[in-house]
Design a protein that fits this description.
By secondary structure, the protein is mostly beta strands. It has one domain. Helix content is about 5%, strand content about 45%. It has one helix and eleven strands, in the order ββββββββββαβ.
């Protein structure tokens, strides 16, 4: 991917109150958390979660890249080829990037997905767009 190219996907929550956007600009990959207004338009970026710096192979070479929301729209995972590379927990207002092991991304566990991110782990998640 050259500097002019970006890889972008987005996914709205089941309750249509939020959108998550993943962007890889060729240097870094981030998930952006964006609340929606009553007209279902993005209010802006409330928070961002760093996922990675440059990866090989590049993200567009991966077979599956997307988001998985739970039914209550309280949790969303960023999924790459069946692995959870990042998660936002709206219930506990926490966010977490998958850990690294020998410079490889290690998937967040299904147990974490099911239980949610404890308030003692991850980082705080900003829920509203600051004006």
């Amino acid at each position: 991917m050259n500097e002019e190219e970006t890889f972008v996907i987005e996914s709205a929550s089941p309750n249509e109150r939020y959108v998550c956007v993943f962007e890889d600009d060729g240097e870094t990959g981030y998930v952006y958390f964006c609340p929606l207004n009553d007209a279902l338009e993005m209010e802006g970026v409330a928070d961002a979660l760093w996922i990675y710096d440059q990866i090989s192979p590049p993200i567009e070479a991966c077979e599956e890249v997307g988001f998985a929301w739970n039914d209550r729209s309280s949790r969303v995972a960023f999924i790459v080829d069946g692995e959870c590379w990042g998660m936002l927990d709206l219930a506990t207002k926490r966010k977490m990037t998958a850990p690294r092991e020998d410079n490889a991304i290690v998937s967040l566990s299904i147990e974490l997905w099911e239980a949610g991110i404890p308030v003692s782990e991850g980082e705080p998640l900003q829920m509203k767009v600051e004006r």
